[in-house]
Write a structure and sequence with these properties.
This protein is an alpha+beta fold. It folds into three domains: 5-92, no CATH class; 94-125, no CATH class; 127-253, Nucleoside Triphosphate Pyrophosphohydrolase (Alpha-Beta Complex), CATH 3.90.79.10. The protein has helices at 66-72, 78-93, 166-178, 239-253, and strands spanning 5-10, 13-17, 23-24, 37-43, 46-52, 61-65, 105-106, 113-115, 120-122, 127-136, 139-145, 156-159, 181-193, 198-209, 219-225. The strands form three sheets. Strands 1, 2, 3, 4, 5 and 6 form a six-stranded mixed beta sheet that branches. The longest helix is centred in the N-terminal third of the chain and has 16 residues, at 78-93.
């Protein structure tokens, strides 16, 4: 491993050296640390590993929250950081079998932890979520979360429940958080999102009925906005930002929502 590339986290932050995003295994930024590291594959022609360092205050390292790295740092290797954080969290959280409690070890062939006692693998967890941009004539819905201090508005989103289709989750989450009914639900795209291990699946939907009635523990504010008059929104590095920009283009073009 000496000289290999290393993505280093500390809690929910990434430790960034001054000349990029990767530390070198055994380099001066690591000090005397030689923690457990997990191979993520290759970056270019070099092997890259992920680990967690116990001391975020090592000299030469900038501490960035994961959200800062993914939302506000244009040169960040987003896909690799996203994957590395999710895999490391899974590796750390599944050191013991959830069925029998025995310690797990690495699977010999797959990205999984293996319980020798139960003879079963434990794979990385993925939580499916829906995120929806809702159109009403020449306006679209934006909402501000009640749970964060970020100043931008985003979209309605939520986890898919057991036994539920994605389209059913779209309708339910919209109804629960806003009191609105939607129709013409159609899938647009997806994005992995490491908070903590989500797969965000983006949808368009059209307003059908109802008045805005906010779920107060979820939303601090919400409203209908035009493409040229709206509050700050997430960047296009996020699926929310891309969905919003795409909807703005559709409204400006003057067409109605595609029917399914």
């Amino acid at each position: 491993m000496e000289g290999d590339l290393l993505l280093a986290f500390s809690g929910n932050s990434i430790l960034k050296p001054g000349d990029g995003w990767f530390l070198r295994w055994g380099g001066p930024e690591m000090g005397d640390s030689r923690p457990t590291a997990l191979c993520m594959g290759s970056w270019g022609s070099q092997r890259v590993y992920v680990t967690q360092l116990p001391d975020p205050g090592l000299p030469g390292l900038e501490v960035l929250t994961l959200r800062e790295a993914l939302l506000a740092t244009p040169d960040a290797p987003l896909a690799l950081i996203n994957t590395a954080f999710q895999v490391w969290q899974w590796w750390r959280d599944h050191q013991f079998c959830g069925r029998c409690g025995e310690r797990t070890g690495p699977h010999p062939r797959e990205r999984a932890r293996w319980c020798q006692h139960c003879n079963i693998p434990w794979y990385p967890r993925i939580a499916p979520c829906v995120i929806i941009v809702i159109r009403r004539s020449d306006r679209f819905l934006l909402a501000k979360s009640a749970r964060t201090g970020r100043n931008f508005y985003s979209l309605i989103a939520g986890f898919v429940e057991p036994g539920e289709s994605l389209e059913q989750a779209v309708a339910r989450e919209t109804r629960e958080e806003t009191g609105l009914e939607v129709e013409n639900i159609r899938y647009q795209g997806s994005q992995p999102w490491p908070f903590p291990h989500q797969l965000m699946m983006g949808f368009y939907a059209d307003y059908r009925a109802g008045d805005l009635t906010l779920q107060e523990d979820e939303l601090a504010d919400a409203g209908w906005f035009t493409p040229d008059d709206h509050p700050p929104i997430p960047p296009e590095t996020t699926i929310a930002g891309r969905l919003i920009e795409s909807m703005k283009e559709r409204i400006r073009a003057g067409g109605k929502g595609d029917r399914v």
